[in-house]
Amino acid sequence: MRGRAYRQRVYSDDRLRSPLRRVGNRGEGIFERISWDEALNEVANKIKEIKQKHGNSAILLVPGGGNQGMLHGIIPHALMLHQIGGYTRMWGAPSYEGALFASMATYGTMMTGNAREDLLNSKLIIMWGWNPANTIWDPGTSLWLAKAREQGIKIVSIDPIFTDSAAVLADEWIPIRPGTDTAALIAISYVIISENLHDMDFIKNYTIGFEKFRDYVLGLEDDQPKTPEWAEEITMISAETIRNLAREYAINKPAALIAGWGPARTAFGEQYSRAANVLCTITGNIGINGGYAAGFMRSYYSRERILTGSKKKSGPFKPDDETPKRPRLQDNPVDFGAAPREESLYKLKGGTNPANTRIHYNDYYNAILKGCKGGYPTDIKMAYIAGTNRLNQFPNVNKGVKALKSLDFIVIYEQFMTPTAQLADIVLPVNTFMERNDVAVPWLGAPYYIYLNKAIDSLYESKSDLEICKELSKKLDIEQSLLDLPEEQILKLFTAPRKDIKSYNKMKRDGYFKVKVDEPFIAFKDQIEDFEKNPFPTLSGKIEIYCEHIAEKNNPLMPPIPKYLTHDEHYDSPIAKKYSLQLLTPHNKRRTHSSLHNIPWLEEIEPHAVWINPVDASKRNINNGDLVDIFNDRGRMRIPAKVTERIIPGAVCVYQGAWYNPDKDGVDLGGCANILTKDVYSPGGAFPLNSSLVEIELSPNNKLEEMQ
After folding, report:
1. Mean pLDDT, range 193-207, rounded to an integer
2. 580 and 702, same structural domain?
3. What per-residue confidence (pLDDT) applies to 350?
4. Tens digit of pLDDT for each residue in 423-476?
């Protein structure tokens, strides 16, 4: 439905038609139309001025996933800025940073899951915090889950929300208190270990650190056994349910535990992902058909084959000095040669760039407001924004407004006047993927590529990312650039290293290229079948239940084994007496983040509202459809209530992506969830997007028409 509705986005009357320059105060949304030449001259002059006065690190590149392809998106912007000396870039991905950190710490790699077809070999499938019917983890996922259900394979969904996936695909829904998933996973481990259901041969042969995890789980470390009864008080899952699930998972081997990223988007979310990784490990459900190594990402075939054309033998990663002597075209000069961040797993090859010149995405507003005096690596003066509605899509919007207003200059590439664009000095109209050529790489490792053939000419005065950067490069006095090449030649250069694309011309002609896969990919199959020749790519060469690299950091909030940790906006924190409801901000079926917010056909599918359980609603005299205010110390939102038993008591849900729209008093009438979320991050980089406490009350007028 999102694909069908995209035509309304392309032909929307609200599309930006020409470059715009701010003429009112920043944030007022008052702009004047200017020519492309005027706009690019102003941008180029500002970049030169800021570089000369403050250095390249004062330029902050703010990229996003709004344009996804091999050519358009961040690539032309980054290549252009590299050639003038670089920029400050951020680290951390809101979607998956916690899961990524955990996968690197445990397995030494990001590619950890089996191909979806292999689910038909499982005896049990656990969807933990995972709603693939809405989030579409490649187009085939729901099909394979439906086939598994038809085949009689039991599917269990664990989630605070009775999701569409739980309703359609699962045999059993186990509701859980938000942010307590780690406790449930550890209690399941307790049952398995205490009842001797763990796979000791697998543990001895392929892992290190089990004894330390066992001592924590059994309470030998801290005198608190992590029993199902202990977890029941925390998670709201009955001890009996925890025991039954633990036995089912351990006995019905092979079993696939698929740990979604939603529970990792919490305070200490990396602990949830690590706990899931370890649970898969101690049951021996790794490297076998029907199993699954819960981790960051799954694939359909070996990643080494994609880039080299041959199967590369893995082995323990040994840090060495492979750094080139000077920056290459793909290197950001500001990052080049920088020392690693203390919290990063810098000894491992993979994961997030560890340069200490980078700023965490959720610390971006503090970095702007405090700068070097606040301990940040630079004083930021300019934001160069492309492919993202940044203000809307990251936590603590009200602080974001303050931070962005403090900058000397903001340029943004956009298709609509988004909340972020309203704060810019120059707005450049970029075209849609329908109006240019590109190649799309399925980022979840599915075995195909798509040639995005240009369907229509660019509407109005819009240009592609590549066209804009080509023209801006000239005004920045860049004499020679990869961007000078024709679009077709650049695409051929970018696809050439991918040895699985046998014919670029065939892909262009057909619109896709399907990769032949001999058999479904099983992550770590080589390691399990011949460990001597194929150790894991960790520092030890084994699965690290206890991670020595983490232990070196000596940070109690980053334990070397997975542990359950509480935090300052959890159900048991003091502030819960004031704000007693846990806010969830999941993905919505009608939007792709914020990109499809303003599409009429999609608005009809599901009205934007806050989901609240009848128990919580009755305590507050709230009825279905009432206009309510959701608030905490960071902001206040006015939105209709959806009273439903599809969410557990104690939690409320505001789907992310709706556009921020404050009234004169600063109350958001657009329903932007990030008005209420917190701009901090966990030691491993996890974003606490589902770890904010709020309260709800009837709005002053309680009339929807008043808001409209």
Report:
1. 98
2. yes
3. 82
4. 999 999 999 999 999 999 877 678 899 999 999 999 999 999 999 999 999 999
Cis-peptide, bond into residue 537, ω within 30° of zero: no
The reply to whether 140 and 280 lie within a common domain is yes
| Same-domain check for residues 131 and 29 | no
Distance CA 170, CA 12 (A): 38
Q: Which residue has the higher pLDDT, 515 or 306?
A: 515
267 vs 273: CA distance, rounded Å: 12
Task: Kindly state whether residues 84 and 131 are assigned to the same domain.
Answer: no
Q: What is the pLDDT of residue 323?
A: 59
Dihedral angle sign, alpha carbons of residues 261, 262, 267, 272:
negative
- The answer to whether residue 298 sits within a structural domain is yes
- The DSSP code sequence of 245-278 is HHHHHHHS-SEEEEE-SGGGSSTTHHHHHHHHHH
Query: What's the CA gap between 607 and 653, in Å, rounded?
Result: 13
Domain count, the chain: 3
- What is the identity of the amino acid at 517? V
The number of beta carbons lying within 10 Å of the beta carbon of residue 436 is: 26
Domain limits at 377? Answer: 16-94+358-435+456-484
pLDDT digits (tens, 9 = 90+) for 324-346: 667 777 899 999 999 999 889 99
CA dist 22 and 422 (Å) reads 9
In this structure, what CATH number is given to the domain that contains residue 579? 2.40.40.20
Residues paired with residue 598 on neighbouring β-strands, in sequence order = none
Nearest to 158 by CA among 176, 179, 145: 176
Contact 676, 694 (CB under 8 A): yes
**Residue 89's CATH number:** 3.40.50.740
The β-bridge partners of 629 are 638, 697
Beta bridge partners of 255: 124
188/47 same-domain check: no
The pTM score is 0.94
Q: From residue 423, how far is each of 160, 374, 418 by CA, in Å?
A: 36, 24, 9
Q: How far is CA 432 from CA 429, 438, 455, in A?
A: 10, 11, 10
Reading the block at residue 692, the tokens are: 């904010």
Whether 352 maps to a domain, the answer reads no
Within this chain, do residues 424 and 362 fall inside the same structural domain, yes or no?
Answer: yes
> For residue 190, which of 295, 292, 285, 282 has the smallest C-alpha distance?
282
Q: Which residues of 333-361 are buried (b: 16+ CB within 10 A; e: fewer)?
A: bbbbeeeebebbbbebebbbbbbbbbbbb
Return the minimum-mean-pLDDT range out of 35-39, 62-66, 89-93, 297-301. 297-301
Q: Which CATH number does the domain housing residue 195 bear?
A: 3.40.228.10
Give CA 352 to chain center in angstroms: 13
Between CA 629 and CA 581 the distance in angstroms is 13
Residue 295 has pLDDT above 60, yes or no: yes
425 near 411, Cβ under 8 Å? Answer: yes
Between CA 606 and CA 616 the distance in angstroms is 22
CA 7 vs CA 360, 389, 540, 701: distances in Å: 35, 20, 52, 37
pLDDT digits (tens, 9 = 90+) for 393-426: 999 999 999 999 999 999 999 999 999 999 999 9
| Co-location of 44 and 153 in the same domain | no
Does a structural domain hold residue 324?
no
Q: Is residue 199 part of a domain?
A: yes
Judge if 379 and 280 occupy the same domain: no
Nearest CA to 542 out of 3, 51, 109, 84 is that of: 109
- Using an 8 Å Cβ cutoff, are 122 and 155 in contact? no
